[in-house]
Amino acid sequence: EARLRKEAEDAARREENLVAARAITLVEDASLPNAVVAKIRDLEPLRGQRVRVSGWAHRLRRQGRQMLFLVLRDGTGFLQCLLSERLCQTVEALQLNTEASVTITGQLTALSEQGGHTAPGGHELLADHWCLVANAPAGGADSLLNAESDVDVQLDNRHMLLRGENQSRLVRLTSLAMKAFRD
C-alpha cells in the first residue's frame, strides 16, 4: 500500500513538472555573436568562442532540477555540454533519452585540471541554446545491450553496440592493423 501511494505521488509530481515545462519555450538570443559550426574533433582552437555542435546524446547526468550534463557524440569525438536553469527544464529536456539527436549552441570553455573537473577533450560547452532534432526510444542502447544480453541479441543490434566507446576502439584498432598488413 505504501509503495502504491509513493508511485502515485511520483506520477503526480512528474505530471506537474511536465505541465510547468510546457510553459517554457526556448528562443535563441539574437544579441549573441554568431556561432561557429564545428565538429567535435575541431573544437580545441575554438575555445573561448561561441560554437554550434550537432550530434547524439551519449550520456545524460541530471544534477537536480537546475543542471543537466550531456555528453555529446558526433562520430569524431565526445564533448561534455552543460545545460542549466531554463535549458534543462523544458519538456524536451525532461524527456531526453540517450541516442537522441540534438544541436547545442554555447560558449566553449577550457576546464582547469586543478579543480578535479574532467571532461573529454579538456573542455566543455556551456549551452545558451539547444534544440532536439529527434528523440530516441526510452532506454536507448542500454535497454537492448547490457552485460546479460545474449550474443544473438548483440549481433542483431551490432549497429547500436558499435556506438559504445570500447567497441568503437576495437574496430578502429582492427582497421589500423589491417591497414598496416596491407601496407
Detailed description of the structure:
With 183 residues, the protein is α/β, with parallel strands linked by helices. Helices cover 32% and strands 28% of the residues. The protein has six helices and six strands. A five-stranded mixed β-barrel has the order 2-3-4-6-5. The longest helix has 21 residues. It is flat and about 65 Å long. The model has no long low-confidence stretch (mean pLDDT 82).
Give a brief rundown of this model:
The chain has 183 residues and is α/β, with parallel strands linked by helices. The protein has 6 helices and 6 strands; from the N terminus they run H-E-E-E-E-H-E-E-H-H-H-H.
Query: Strand-and-helix sequence, N→C?
Result: HEEEEHEEHHHH
Unreliable spans are none
Helix content: 25-40%
Arrangement of strands in the largest sheet: 2-3-4-6-5
Q: What does the radius of gyration come to?
A: 19 Å
Global structural class:
alpha/beta
Q: What is the overall number of helices?
A: 6
> On the 0-100 scale, what is the average pLDDT?
82
Q: What amount of the residues lies in strands?
A: 25-35%
Q: What labels would you give this structure?
A:
flat
List the helices and strands and how they pair.
Elements (H helix, E strand, L loop, with lengths): L1 H21 L13 E2 L12 E14 L3 E7 L4 E7 L6 H4 L6 E10 L12 E12 L5 H5 L6 H6 L1 H4 L3 H18 L1
Parallel strand pairs: 1-2, 4-6
Antiparallel strand pairs: 2-3, 2-5, 3-4, 5-6
